[in-house]
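Notebook p. 47: complex prediction with zinc ion.
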Amino acid sequence: MKKSVVSKEYQKLQKEIIELQEQWRTSLDPDCVRPNLDKAAMEAGVPVTALAAIDFDISLFLQWIEDIGGLLSKYQPEIETSMQSVKNLLDEETAKRWIDEAFAFNYIYFKSFAEENDLDGWIPQFVAETVLRPYLQLTAAKVQDEIHQGVHGAGCPVCGEPVRLAQLEGEGKKVLHCPRCSAHWNDRRVACSHCGNNDHETVKILTIEGESAAQIQICEECKGYTKVIDTRQYIVKPTPAMLDLNTIHLDFVAQEHGYKSAGETKQTN
Ligand SMILES: [Zn+2]
Ligand SMILES: [Zn+2]
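Predicted complex, structure tokens below:
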């Protein structure tokens, strides 16, 4: 399950997870998410999902865990026992806590939950994140018409995920897309999408041999990178999650060159 290994098997599993999440999302009652759009909070970079009310259905949660367990077990049969323990451990209170902690990217909580319950370290957070996404995607779909701009450095305006993917539209406009919640918003083509730097000396393009429709925008100020994919020629546009998965090799190229999907604030002095 380590992301450093991009095997065909890994990509196939990820693709099946994305498809499963799409099914889950369509099964949600659209009224179970009630976003509260606060302009001042959005301008300060607070993600919309942080202020959304979500009615959370424990039976659905447990059903999804069963679905994801079934899928993972096809690839790693030994996982079945762990997924059964996860199901047994999740009462309503714990399930709610998982959602809250997954929202907050609280790796420490999930790591200690795994340790305390003798589970593989990656399982609790992976499961929580997987079942959270349909709610994030539903939130994004509901507020998309109100999302035009992001705040540099704050990640996705809907879910807070660090920026890493953009698509070109129209005359070459750069539109950022979030692979986690599917929200999209505009950014200046020449600017670094992490720190907003638009100095052409320090915002550069890494071109990839043999890939005319894909490039990596890099920034020497914050060391952030953004994959910029020209999907204008595509007949069928992939979802941001699929496009992100299909271009995962670009993340490796960027990371090998020392760039990150979350830029750094430059230390002065
Ligand atoms: Zn997002
Ligand atoms: Zn930057």
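Notes: Residues 156, 158-159, 161, 178, 180-181, 183 surround zinc ion (ligand 1) (CB under 6 Å). Residues 1-5 have pLDDT under 50 and may be disordered.
Next step: compare against the earlier run before touching the bench.
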